[in-house]
Amino acid sequence: MTLQLKVSGLPAFQAPEVIIPRLAQKGARVSQVIRHDGALVFRAEGSVAPGVYVEEGGKDARPLVLDSRQSFHVNPVAAGGLVAVHRGQPGRIPALVEEVLFIDGETVVMRVPGQTVGVSGDGTTALVADVPGKTLHRVDLPTRTRTRAAGFAAGMNPHLAPVLALDVNGKRALFMDAREERCDGSLELLDLESGTVKRLLGPSPAPSRVCGAFSPSGNMIALEMRVGDTPQFRMLRIQGDEPGAVALKLEIAEPLSVPAFLDENHVVLPLTLTTHPNATYGPVELVMVSLVNGTTVPITRGGEVRGRARVEGDAVLLEGGDVVLRIPWRAG
């Protein structure tokens, strides 16, 4: 995986640092790797008991939570000082995540029913979407308490649980709702203090999925993925509480994840810019997108990007694959 050259006037990126769990170097099969408080958290199996592990400093990996005959554990997420882990039952076909565990050290301090979780930028608030229960749960991470934030139609298949985004201060959230199993995605804005929900986009014709993201100042963008025989992906600015200008439009199926903002006008996220005749997606790269003119700049080259992007100070982190990529960047 190599780095693309700087484009004049746009943010510049340096060579990536590839961070590999030591357990992988010892032969374990490792995936879903994230960074949390300087440690690596990941799922491991193969030569070790399957489950979620943590590696801190120069210490050997230790189990955070292990699988059993009754449960499996996947997709760790940094949640302030806690780690959120998705738990499901292995006997179901297809397997379905049923709850989110919030873990402090090796202790499960909360269990919240749901399939997916989003966390505010300041690490104080989490939102868990429970599709079968048609409920969004708000979790106050410092006090480790939860309340019902809102209900939603939640007509989609639970395996298509919404991608969630919260603003920096945990006051607002963006989530997908749907009224039918094939997923007629609409983007909803939730005020986490009042519980008020307002529709920003859609519903889009099924099958479709949507998600959104907040900039550091609280501005919003929406991502819409219409799938089927003629796929179409759009990235739009939200002006006020209404869809605004289309920043990017691609007639290609795309993986859907929350973009990470470099500044108010530039985001990074995994995208495919070319099609593949025998696959849902073409080669996926980490790509920077200008929200001003739609310019796309691949940051990686190799077509094997997996996971999601986030910005940590002067670096972009690509997490959720079998390694973490840390890519220093600076403004153009």
Explain what this protein looks like in three dimensions.
- The chain has 332 residues and is mostly beta strands.
- Helices cover 1% and strands 53% of the residues.
- It contains 1 helix and 31 strands.
- The chain has one helix at 22-25, and strands at residues 2-3, 12-13, 17-19, 29-36, 39-45, 51-55, 62-66, 72-79, 82-89, 96-104, 107-113, 116-119, 125-130, 135-140, 145-151, 165-166, 172-177, 186-191, 197-201, 208-214, 220-226, 232-239, 242-250, 260-263, 266-272, 284-290, 296-298, 300-301, 308-312, 315-319, 324-330.
- The longest helix is centred in the first third of the chain and has 4 residues, at 22-25.
- The radius of gyration is 19 Å and the shape is globular.
Helices and strands, with pairings:
Blueprint: E1 2-3, E2 12-13, E3 17-19, H1 22-25, E4 29-36, E5 39-45, E6 51-55, E7 62-66, E8 72-79, E9 82-89, E10 96-104, E11 107-113, E12 116-119, E13 125-130, E14 135-140, E15 145-151, E16 165-166, E17 172-177, E18 186-191, E19 197-201, E20 208-214, E21 220-226, E22 232-239, E23 242-250, E24 260-263, E25 266-272, E26 284-290, E27 296-298, E28 300-301, E29 308-312, E30 315-319, E31 324-330
Antiparallel strand pairs: 1-28, 2-31, 3-31, 4-5, 5-6, 6-7, 8-9, 9-10, 10-11, 12-13, 13-14, 14-15, 16-17, 17-18, 18-19, 20-21, 21-22, 22-23, 24-25, 25-26, 26-27, 29-30, 30-31
